[in-house]
User: What shape does this take?
Amino acid sequence: MGHKIQTFSNIKGGNIFYKAISHPAVKEKASKLIRQLEKEVPSALYDPLGLYSSFSEFYNTSAVKFVATFVQDIERIGSLLANQSAEPVTELQNSGAKTIFIAAFDVEPLRHHINHLIPHGANIISFDDMRVDENWLTNKSTYLSKENFATNYAFFREESGMSTRLTTANYWSNYGATNVKLHLILFDQAGKNIAQWSEKIEGAGMSISIDSAKVRERFNLPEFTGQLFVQFSGVQGHDVVKYALDIFCKNQKFLTCTHDSNAWPSDFYAGLPAPRKGETVILWIQNSHPCSIPSGEIGINVMGTAEICRVKTEVPSFGTYSLSIGDLLPNAMWPQQIEIQAGKHFVRPRYEITGGPTVRRIAHVNVERADLKPDPKIRELTHLVGKGFILPAPILPARVWRSTLLPTPMSTAQNKLPIAALIFDPNGNKIATHKFGLLPRSHKEILETSNFLTNERYGHVELIYDFTYGTDVDGWLHGLFRYENKETCHTAETSFGAHIFNTILTFKNEPQSYSSRPPGLSTRLFLRVDITGIDTFLHLLYPASSPWHDDSNTSLSLINPNGKKIVEVKLSIPCGGSRLRRISELFKDKDLDRAGAGSYIIVRDTSCRLFGYHGLISEEGPFSLDHMFGF
Assistant: This one.
């Protein structure tokens, strides 16, 4: 079940051909191409790069009948291609075909190779007939360049008093990009394209904000809950589209935030929390493809159990379906967690929790990898890089907030988790160690990290491997972190995975670097600022696998919407420690006013890699929290 195409490889990266054929702007062009193939007979297929079968996964080609199919690779001769035995392309001249379909983009060099084999007068068609518009492209000479498909999806809602705001910045200008454009398609819940537009990003470092209320007004739309397709052209450096996503109520009854979707659909996702008593957990399934998701393709199960409950509803192309976890798994209860059998049908999805003692909140699940197995080398790293893999997260002041940690299996091979949690005060002093032991895949162990701190103190927790209980680990260590206001019950949660931090030695792709080869030993984090009466806070953590510089040399630059720096402040964080600050404490009111609406902050440190969390907080109780992103 599910798509067989490989969307992403941790060795090779993303499959750009996948993005090219599943792009929402080419759906009608692809359908037109198929109708042409159905009519133009006799036709033959030439598949030199082995792409046709992947194309057929997303479009119904069953009515296309080729008189013959041809390949270039000798090892593919005789294999099944479009329900026929593939022949060597040297036999094309004897096919009698009046139309030759070459299953490739940038087809001219491939066509030139076989000019002498094409039957006289035959028409040539190819995937070039389903290219996106030229003004959406960065590299016009090489269509399957990754810079041509800097794309992502965002949950997007303007309904029942709830709004959504996507925020990012022109970070490609850091890599020399000078002509960046933004292209957007908005789909409603049924998958209908209800708005499509482009915007030019005028300057380097310019802030970017897409507000659902403004979009609704601009296009005179009814209320909607759906998804926003986002593409940038003119990019340089990398093709990753990152953003912060705030979902909020206009009367400030709730605030919640999440971030980019990870643009490559996966077979599995995990880390979805089961509901507490009285709660409803909704998984937002948002189809990322031009074909529908058939009934029974998507399933969920309680982590560590074999019984999979299937979704018996078809989800239309680019449509949105709200799945209540309680409908399929009525006995699942927090702190159990849910595994999602996704079949590569959608990018990393959001979930929404309502009811119970809490207030509405939205977060995301994570990619559960199926390509990992235990790596004994990780155990051997301890004498070289100390703690090795670290998963750091805030502990908010215990007088106000209850901070909870739930370890989450995030690989199909993780049957036992030998882990421990280290508790640190703001100055990097370890004040407690909690040994989870060897957790089974189906565990229900949570840790209230705030119990280790006095009322006024904050700090952070580091989840690490504990090799006294086992050595079968793979480096893909994840956890869910939940924060609840003890008085108002407003709650926020986020999840993330472990990395090796702040050591000069490298292991595979760690310490991770955003823009160059490892090790990543510097920081550039994005923080959007809200100046509408809601304060912004950030919690910067300085984790170190091995001892690093005693203190960070961190700067926070307040940037106006046009990308101009207004003011810079300095912050020093002890190695192994953290700092929790509100923006109103760091910057003067006059500077925030000068920056204005749409401003943001860049957290920069060239001496170490920091990890950050951010949120918005209202004095009335609502707040949001998520981890920051860098570029």
Observations:
- The longest strand covers residues 430-440.
